[in-house]
């Protein structure tokens, strides 16, 4: 969320930067609403001052035995005028808030121009995609052949875009999540949290999922209570500190959680409907940091490294790209995508996004710290996937497949699994 006055002061610069992400800022509308808001505040203050003066005159005139009828009539008029202005003020405030909530974050000038993944800039490649002396299978065929993935029964339970893992597959999902959590808590300094999977509208608004992306969310409720299923642990982790002032000595805050994530994927049907790439429910380990805004750029680079460490630990080939301004998420200033190699598709596919949101989310959620002068100021928030379990499982199966249909897993998983190989019939083997 933006400060209206700051956008107005930026003027053409704000229009230019938002245009890079395909958003047309109507400065005249913003200025009009801000002006009406300020005028209403001034008018209401003036009327309250007059009302207070008239009330004092009523008391003094009454004590002196004078005629107070005209003063009382004026007091009633002022009361009605104040009520009307306050009602109008509520309306203007709502209109201004709705407009500000709909304006995306200003993209960082470091983000390249463009509006799709085609304009992303490759930063680096790590590892060599495996070369197979056979036609590699996709993770769906591998999972179903070994019996560790069951999409048909998942569809029977819940419809399309769900998966059931069993045996070595379920153990592998659990091992991946634990490995990621151990890396982030023991090596990278994050504090693990267990958080609610259902949150309020205010919580969703704080991180920018609402109001813009309501169609992408699963919603439930009991009686008059409305709750949303989280699309990522970013939502509860960031909002843990909503409406709080974090002592400067506690920054940076580094938080992580392993949660299910729920997304309707509205508008994406027909794309990646097969397999684990785009599910309605999936598990993910999320990393979140809250820092002084001056430290946000350096923290972004560090967090990209934290997400990369998970892939390096598994020996998976991947690349890092910097997203174009027009392809950056609504709340983000700058985003790096980490893309893992998917042999069956002969390409890299996104497995993690790591973003710097600047103070955008902190303003929406009212998360602050104190500056050197002791006055409250907004923090900067950042988050990233570190990593999603399902997409990592898909990449592992495909990059680690053998000609006989078995899967040879990386050594780093053995302490968590107790086995390294999944045979062609799904049997775990040392």
Describe this structure in words.
With 430 residues, the chain is an alpha+beta fold. The chain has helices at 4-10, 12-19, 27-63, 69-102, 139-146, 151-158, 168-187, 201-206, 234-239, 296-314, 360-365, 389-399, 414-417; strands spanning 121-126, 149-150, 164-165, 191-193, 198-199, 219-222, 225-229, 244-245, 253-262, 281-291, 318-322, 334-342, 347-356, 367-370, 376-378, 380-388, 407-408, 421-422, 428-429. The strands form 5 sheets. An 8-stranded mixed β-sheet has the order 1-11-12-13-16-10-9-4. Strand 14 and strand 15 (376-378) form a beta hairpin. The longest helix has 37 residues, at 27-63. The mean pLDDT is 96.
Mean pLDDT: 96
Q: Which runs of at least 5 residues are low in confidence (pLDDT < 50)?
A: none
Question: Which class do the helix and strand fractions yield?
Answer: alpha+beta
Sheet of most strands: 8 strands, mixed
How are the strands of the largest sheet arranged?
1-11-12-13-16-10-9-4
The dominant shape is elongated
Radius of gyration: 27 Å
Q: Give the CA-CA distance, first to last residue.
A: 53 Å
Helical run tally: 13
Helical percentage: 40-55%
Strand portion, in percent?
A: 15-25%
Number of strands: 19
List keywords for this structure.
single chain; 430 residues; alpha+beta; 8-stranded mixed β-sheet; 3-stranded antiparallel β-sheet; 13 helices; 19 strands; 40% helix; 22% strand
């Amino acid at each position: 969320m933006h400060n209206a006055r700051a956008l107005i002061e930026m003027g053409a610069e704000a229009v230019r930067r938002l245009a890079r992400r395909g958003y047309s800022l109507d400065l005249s509308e913003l200025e009009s609403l801000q002006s009406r808001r300020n005028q209403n505040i001034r008018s209401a203050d003036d009327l309250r001052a007059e009302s207070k003066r008239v009330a004092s005159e009523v008391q003094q005139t009454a004590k002196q035995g004078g005629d107070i009828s005209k003063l009382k009539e004026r007091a009633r008029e002022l009361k009605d005028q104040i009520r009307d202005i306050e009602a109008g003020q509520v309306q203007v405030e709502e209109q201004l808030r709705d407009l500000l909530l709909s304006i995306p974050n200003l993209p960082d000038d470091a983000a390249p121009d463009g509006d799709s993944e085609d304009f992303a800039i490759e930063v680096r490649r790590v590892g060599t995609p495996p070369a197979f002396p056979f036609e590699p299978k996709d993770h769906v065929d591998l999972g179903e052949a070994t019996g560790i993935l069951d999409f048909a029964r998942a569809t029977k339970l819940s419809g399309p875009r769900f998966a059931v893992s069993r045996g070595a597959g379920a153990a592998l999902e659990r091992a991946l999540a634990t490995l990621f959590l151990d890396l982030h808590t023991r090596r990278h300094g994050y504090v693990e949290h267990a958080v609610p999977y259902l949150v309020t509208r205010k919580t969703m608004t704080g991180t920018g999922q609402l109001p813009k992306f309501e169609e992408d969310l699963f919603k439930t409720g009991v009686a008059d209570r409305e709750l949303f299923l989280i699309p990522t642990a970013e939502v509860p982790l960031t909002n843990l500190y909503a409406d709080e002032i974090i002592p400067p000595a506690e920054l940076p805050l580094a938080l992580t959680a392993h949660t299910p994530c729920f997304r309707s994927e509205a508008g994406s049907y027909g794309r990646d409907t097969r397999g684990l790439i785009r599910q309605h429910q999936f598990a993910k380990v999320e990393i979140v940091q809250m820092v002084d805004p001056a430290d946000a750029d350096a923290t972004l680079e560090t967090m990209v490294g934290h997400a990369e460490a998970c892939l390096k630990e598994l020996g998976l080939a991947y690349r890092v790209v910097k997203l174009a301004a027009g392809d950056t998420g609504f709340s983000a200033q700058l985003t790096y995508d980490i893309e893992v190699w998917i042999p069956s598709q002969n390409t890299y596919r996104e497995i993690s996004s790591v973003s710097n949101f600047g103070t955008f989310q902190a303003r929406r959620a009212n998360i602050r710290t104190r500056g050197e002068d002791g006055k409250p100021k907004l923090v900067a928030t950042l988050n990233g996937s570190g990593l999603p379990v399902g997409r990592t499982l898909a990449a592992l199966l495909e990059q680690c497949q053998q000609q006989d249909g078995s899967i040879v897993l990386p050594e780093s998983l053995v302490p968590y699994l107790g086995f390294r190989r999944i045979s062609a019939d799904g049997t775990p083997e040392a």
